[in-house]
Amino acid sequence: MSHILGIDVGGSGVKAAIVDTENGEFVSEKIKYATPQPSNPKNVGKVLNQLIDDFSWKYKVVGCGFPSIIKDDICLSAANIDNSWVGVDLCRYFEKTTKCRAVFVNDADAAGIAEMNFGAGRRKMGTVLLLTLGTGIGSGLFRDGRLVPNTELGHLLYKKSVFEHYASNSARKKKQLSWRAWGAELNTYLNHIELILNPDLIILGGGVSKRFDFFEKYLKVNCELVPASMQNNAGIIGAAIMAK
């Protein structure tokens, strides 16, 4: 089956669509709901069930991008979602909650998988890094097309906290930063990443990637730097690919 329901659970929204995994395109409308607060398993489960019902997707496999380090299906971190998720077996939880089977993947890894298969990273070798600039900063790292899973490069220490509290899109909005001021923070972050990883290509994703022209001129890096071609849909598409 090439058509898979992909779900992207984020800090501010939970969105889903049916994806043709052969070409990385939606074959349905995208439906989005606000991430409930508190974003605990019970409340998020209600949104997941609503999405399953919206698409009439009973008893079939689902791909789900989730904002966490995930090992052996266990949620090991909760940076932008309720702490009560830590320790949860995500696949068992999903099957019990929705009666559907699921494949879970870190949300930024899912976005990277989409871009590497059908987007800005397609056919790119060497070290490629996808950064999602949203509620936080997610990272998907690839070496010669192979995923290095569960990197959390938005949590590198910076000033009194971590980089995602200064260079994420939510930080830009919260602090009401101009594109120039925010671009300076993002540029500091990108240069730090370059020092650590020496990537060949950095892809900037998340919803703000569609405004790349607004802040591109404030970014000075040595490697190739491009916006994600799938923008904020990449997480849904990558999750579906993983389920396939």
Evaluate the radius of gyration. 17 Å
Structural class call reads alpha/beta
The share of residues in extended strands comes to 25-35%
- Helical residues, percent: 25-40%
What is the chain-wise order of helices and strands? EEEEHEEEHEHEEEEEHHHEHEH
Relevant terms:
8 helices, 244 residues, 27% strand, globular, 15 strands, single chain, 6-stranded mixed sheet, alpha/beta, 5-stranded mixed sheet
Fold and architecture overview:
With 244 residues, the protein is an alpha/beta fold. Helix content is 32%, strand content 27%. The strands form 4 sheets. Strands 1, 2, 3, 4, 5 and 8 form a 6-stranded mixed β-sheet that branches. A 5-stranded mixed β-sheet has the order 11-10-9-14-15, with helices on one face. The protein has a two-stranded antiparallel ribbon with strand order 6-7. Strand 12 (157-158) and strand 13 (161-162) form a beta hairpin. Helix 1 (41-54) crosses helix 2. The longest helix is centred in the last third of the chain and has 19 residues, at 179-197. The radius of gyration is 17 Å and the shape is globular. The mean pLDDT is 96.
